[in-house]
Automatic annotation (TrEMBL):
GO CC term, one of those recorded: cytosol
Coiled coil: none
GO molecular function: DNA binding; DNA-binding transcription factor activity
UniProt name for this protein: Crp/Fnr family transcriptional regulator
UniProt cross-references to Pfam families, sorted A to Z: cNMP_binding, HTH_Crp_2
Length: 231
């Protein structure tokens, strides 16, 4: 199997890429280039000039924000076949957050200039780029709503559901084992580790999940969703 075939297979397992017109999907892959980064390496930093649109082929990319005092907020853990970096495609402004390799990663990058040239040639595909952007916006609004309205256990359940569904990117599957620690969940949800631990214990007692040493297994996604919804 060629590199192009591998890229196509991984990218097409995601709902956004799978739904693209064939001409635009082919154009993205033909203009893309592979990028390898090692665990702990920073891909880009907040304030940097944007260099393109990325897709995770393997590994996990950690998206963070850091305060002036050095406190880090964990915003997302991106896994295959998630795309990211689209905000700067629209406005050309500097990167909004930092992106790090949580583990060794293989990525695709469609360079900024190449992508903008493709969109200038076929402006009808701005609609597909808008769909990628608004998908993230919907998730952001949902997260703000959960922060305001849901108790901690419901918020933890909601984040586990998002991760199991690849933040809405997968086409036909949910991930059963989530490689995320209690500390990382706490950072994503602005909850203490103790609160996250209590919430996970409650979810396990309900039969939604099973806690492992460095991961969480989703046992019953329907029950997990019911817990998030307060049922």
């Amino acid at each position: 199997m060629s590199c192009r075939d591998t890229w196509q297979r991984v990218a097409a397992s995601g709902a956004w890429f799978a739904g693209l017109p064939a001409t635009f999907a082919d154009a993205l892959l033909s203009r893309a280039e592979p990028v390898s980064i090692s665990a702990g390496q920073r891909l880009f930093a907040r304030g940097e000039v944007p260099d393109g649109l990325y897709c995770v082929l393997s590994g996990v990319v950690r998206v963070t924000a850091t305060s002036v005092s050095g406190q880090e907020a964990l915003l997302a853990m991106l896994q295959p076949p998630q795309w990211f970096g689209e905000i700067a495609v629209f406005d050309g402004a500097p990167r909004t957050h930092d992106a790090w390799a949580q583990e060794d990663c293989e990525l695709l990058r469609v360079p900024q200039a190449a992508l903008l040239a493709e969109l200038a040639e076929r402006p009808q595909h701005w609609r597909e780029m808008g769909q990628l952007l608004t998908q993230k916006l919907r998730i952001t609004f949902a997260a703000v709503e959960e922060l305001s309205l849901l108790r901690p256990t419901q918020r933890v359940a909601g984040r586990l559901l998002l991760m199991a569904d690849g933040y809405g990117t997968w086409t036909d599957r949910s991930k059963r084992v989530l490689e995320v620690s209690q500390e990382q969940l706490g950072l994503m949800l602005a909850l203490s580790r103790q609160t996250v631990n209590q919430s996970l214990r409650e979810l396990q007692l309900r039969g939604c999940i099973k806690r492992r040493r460095a991961s969480i297994e989703v046992i019953d996604v329907h029950l997990l969703r019911a817990t998030r919804d307060g049922i």
